Amino acid sequence: MSELISKSDFIRANVSNSNNDAVAFEMKFAKDLKVSQLKNKLEILTGGSAATMRVELYEGKNRLATLDNDDAQLGFYINSDGLRLHVIDSFLTLSFDNNTVEKFELTNDQYEQRKDSVRYYLKQNRLGKFNEEEMRQMEEKRREHADELQRRAELCVVNARCEVSVPGNPRRRGTIRYNGSLDGKSGIFIGVEYDEPLGKNNGSVNGKVYFKCGPNYGGFVSPLSVEVGDFPSEDVNLDDEL
């Protein structure tokens, strides 16, 4: 009897490509897919090359990680739906001397008629914005993501104990010191004073103080990365170590 596959073995992620605005749609991937295998799958969607491709993980406009370990499984970087895989490929961004090479441009109508374009491929295979059901599901996912983000943010009360889990980083315990927006960034951020110096700042970002703590004891993360609870302080006494 074949083994049943759980829905939790897969994740859904939006795919974007800095080299072509037409590529922006949701795909489903197995969590045990290696990064090298993921790049091979993205080749057909972007027209790029797996050998020169770099894949970055985003939540909204915030970059969470770079998928730089080809042997790592996708689940090492992504544990939840709704994030975005952004493809940057130097194979598609070769530069030319504008003084010697005539710039090649197509009107929207001309591009619409081409049969070798990404848009034509998406239309023929009913992918992305050309699949009404996928677009409906994506919009529903966006609403669910926004609702969950708001719900988790409301739980992040200042001075509450918490545990932070960010892909590619160890779990860290600390105390919530800030809940709100950051200058120059969109969305809600939770400022955490960690029990250990495993953060990135002292509660300041770009010179603005949001809360005060020791160097490398502070960090700002998405509400989705924060679990509020009665987490005891980490028992760390560096003075006793030899």
From TrEMBL:
GO annotation (BP), single: cytoplasmic microtubule organization
GO cellular component terms listed in the entry, alphabetical order: cell cortex; cytosol; microtubule plus-end; nucleus
Sequence similarity: Belongs to the TBCB family.
Keyword tRNA-binding (UniProt): no
GO terms, molecular function: alpha-tubulin binding; microtubule plus-end binding
Organism: Drosophila willistoni
CAP-Gly domain location: 180-222
Superkingdom of origin: Eukaryota
Keyword hit for Chaperone: yes
Lineage per the UniProt record: Eukaryota, Metazoa, Ecdysozoa, Arthropoda, Hexapoda
InterPro entries on file: CAP-Gly_dom_sf, CAP-Gly_domain, TBCB_Ubl, Ubiquitin-like_dom, Ubiquitin-like_domsf
Keyword annotations from UniProtKB, A to Z: Chaperone, Cytoplasm
Protein name: CAP-Gly domain-containing protein
CDD domains: Ubl_TBCB
Subcellular location: Cytoplasm
